[in-house]
Amino acid sequence: LWQLLPRPKSQPPLVWHWIPFLGSAATYGRDPIGFFRQCREKSFIMQMPLLQYGNCFTFILLGKRVTVTLGTRGNDYVLGGKHTQLAAEDVYSPLTTPVFGKDVVYDCPNEKLMEQKRFVKVSLTIDKFRAYVGMIEDEIKGYLETDPKFRVYQMDDINEWGAFPVLEVFSEMTILTASRTLQGREIRERLTKDYAQVYHDLDHGFTPLHWMIPNLPLPSYRKRDAAQAKMSAFYQSILRHRREHPEEHQDDDVMASLMKQRYRDGTPLRDHEIAHILIALLMAGQHTSSSSLAWTMLHIADRQDIQEALYEEQVKHFGTPDGGLRDITYDELRDLKVLDAVVRETLRLHPPIHSIMRMAHEDIPVPATLAAPSEDVTYVVPKGDIVMASPIVSQLDPTVWEDAETWEPLRWYDDKGVAAQAHKQYNEGEKIDFGFGLVSKGTVSPYLPFGAGRHRCIGEQFAYLQISTAICALIRRLELKLESDFPKSDYESMMVQPLPCKILYRRRKFD
Ligand code: HEM
Fold first, then answer.
1. ipTM beyond 0.85?
2. Ligand 1 centroid vs 192 CA: distance in angstroms?
3. How far is it, in rounded angstroms, from Cα 357 to Cα 377?
C-alpha cells in the first residue's frame, strides 16, 4: 500500500506492482513493448484505469529501480547522455564480462572502450568488405548444397517444396559467415569441430537470467565459465602461433589488424584483450544479425510481390547474356534499392535490442518536455537508478509512421517521406568524435536500430553487408513461402527473435 502514499513530485511515477522484489519483471519480460505502451497510456488496478504515466516512469525489476524514458526525446536523454552521468558498463558488465572476458568492452573504463572501438573500426575497411561479399555468398551456397536441412534443394528438383527451421538455419548461416570473414581462417576451420560446442556453452550463458543473477551454482554457469576460458585460450594460441610463424600467416583479418594496434599511451593490446575483443564481436553480432536475417526472410516469404521485386533486381543488376547471374559485388550491393528498403524496414519493425540501459551516476533532471502528462512537472532520476530507452517504441509510433505495425518496404522509396527523413536524421545529423572517429550523434531520430551516440553499434556496416549478401544469395537460389501464420515475437531470450517456425522453399528454376 506504500505505493499509494503521496510521493515527491520530482520523482517519476512508480508503476503499480503486487509483489515487492519481483515488481513488474514478469510483465516486462513477457512483452516489453506492450508493457511500455500500457504504462505510457494508462495503469490499471483490478481493471480500473488509475494513472497515465506518460513518457517517463519507474518500474521495479527484481529489486532494481528502472526509470524508462520513451519517445524520441526519451531516446535522446539516454543515448545522448554524458557517460560520466549515465554509464553503460555498470549495467551491462554482469552479463558481458563472464562471456567476453576481462579488460574489454564493459570491463574497462569507457575511454578504453572507445579506443577498442577505434581498433575494430580501422580493421573493417571497405577493401575488406569487398572481399567479404564473395566469402559470404560462398558460405551460403555451400550450406545450401551440403546441410541436411536443405535436402530438397540438393535433389535438384525444381517442383518439390521442402521446409527449414528458421531460427536454426539463420543462426548457423550467421556464425558461418561471421567466422569466415570477421573471425579469421583458423576459427572457420574449427567451427565444425570442438569450437561449436564451446560456442554453444558460452552462448547459453548469454541470457537474461545470467544477466540478472551473474553467478549461481548451476551447470549453465559452470559451462559458461569453462567455455570462456577455453575460447580465450584458443584465440591466444592462434595469436602465439601467428607471432612465432609469421611466414605461415599472411592473413589480413581483424586479428591481424588488432595485433598491430597501439593504445594512445603507446602500449600494444595484450593477447587476452585481442582474444576477448574477438569473442565480443562474435557474441554481439551473432544474435543481432541472425534474428534480423530471420525476420527479413520471414517477411520476404510472406510478401510474394517483394520477393519477386528482389529477384528482378538481381536479374537487372547481375544478369548475364546467357540468362545466369554473375557474382555480387560490394559496390553494386549499395545500389540495390529494393534490398536496402527490405533491410531497413525489417530493422524498423524488429530491431533485435528492445531496451537500452545505463546507470545514473548522479541525480539527473528529466527535461520537462519528456515528463508528460503534465508539462509543469520536472522529474529527477535519482542516482543509482537504471535508465532505460526503447527505440522500438518510436520505430512503431503511429503518430510518426503511417501504418506503423505493417512491414512495408515501399515507405523507404519516397525520398521525401517520413522514413527517408528519419534515416537522414539518424545518419547525417550532428557528427561527433567520441574517440573512435566521427559518428553521427543521431540520437533524436525516430529510427535508431543500431543505437546512437557514443555507444552506437560498431558492427553496423558489417551487419548490413552480411545480411544483404545473405538475402541476395538466398533469393537467387530459392523461392520461399510461409508454412503457417506469421510468427509472433519471442522476448524471452536476449534479442527479439521470432518464435520457432518454418519457411517452405523450392529451388529456383534458373539457378
Ligand atoms: C552496440 C544493434 C550487429 C557489435 C549496439 C547497440 C545496438 C546494436 C542497438 C547499442 C547498445 C547500447 O547503446 O547500449 C545491432 C544490430 C545489429 C548489430 C541491430 C545487426 C543487425 C553487430 C555486429 C557487431 C556488433 C555484427 C560486431 C561485429 C557491437 C558492439 C557494441 C554494439 C561491440 C557495443 C558498443 C558500445 O557499447 O559502445 N549494437 N548490432 N553489433 N554492437 Fe551491435
1. yes
2. 26
3. 24
For 8, the grid coordinates are 515527491
Q: How far apart are CA 448 and CA 47, in angstroms?
A: 34
* CA distances (Å), origin 108, targets 72, 89, 482: 29, 8, 45
State how beta strands 86-87 and 162-165 pair.
Answer: unpaired
Atom of ligand 1 nearest to the CA of 466: 26
Query: Residue whose CA is closest, atom 38 of ligand 1?
Result: 455
Diameter of the chain measured on Cα atoms = 78
DSSP lists the bridge partners of residue 4 as: none
Distance from Cα 92 to the centre of ligand 1, integer Å: 13
Q: For ligand 1, atom 36, which residue shows the shortest CA distance?
A: 455
Q: Is 457 annotated as a binding residue?
A: yes
Instruction: Say yes or no to pLDDT of 326 above 60.
Output: yes
Q: What is d(CA 49, CA 247) in angstroms, rounded to the nearest whole number?
A: 72
Q: How confident is the model at residue 171 (pLDDT cuts 50, 70, 90)?
A: very high
Rounded Cα–Cα distance for residues 439 and 441 (Å): 6
Does the CB atom of residue 457 touch ligand 1 within 6 A?
A: yes
Q: Give nearest CA residue, ligand 1 atom 15.
A: 450
372 has a pLDDT exceeding 90: no
Helices (H), 382-445: 391-395, 418-428
Atom 21 of ligand 1, residue of closest alpha carbon: 289
Instruction: Give pLDDT, residue 53.
Output: 83
453-475 pLDDT, tens digit per residue, is 999 999 999 999 999 999 999 99
349 versus 11: the higher-pLDDT residue is 349
Cell of 35: 508493457
Mean pLDDT across 284-305: 97
Query: What pLDDT score does 143 carry?
Result: 96
Q: Rounded distance, CA 505 to CA 42, Å?
A: 44
Atom number in ligand 1 closest to CA 463? 26
Residue 61 pLDDT > 80? yes
Whether residue 278 has its Cβ less than 6 Å from ligand 1:
no
Distance from residue 510's CA to the centre of ligand 1 (Å):
37
- The confidence band for 193, taking pLDDT boundaries of 50, 70 and 90, is low
> Which of 69, 182, 358, 457 gets mutated to test ligand 1 (max ligand atoms within 8 A of its CB)?
457
Mutation pick for ligand 1 pocket among 288, 426, 454 (CB with most ligand atoms within 8 Å): 288
CA–CA dist 327, 106 (Å, integer): 40
Q: Each residue of 189-228: b (16+ CB within 10 Å) or e?
A: ebbeeebeebbebbbebbeeebbeeeeeeeeebebbbebb
CA distance to 187, 299, 308, 410, 419, per residue, from 345 (Å): 33, 10, 17, 9, 9
For ligand 1, say whether the CB of 442 is within 6 Å of any of its atoms. Answer: no
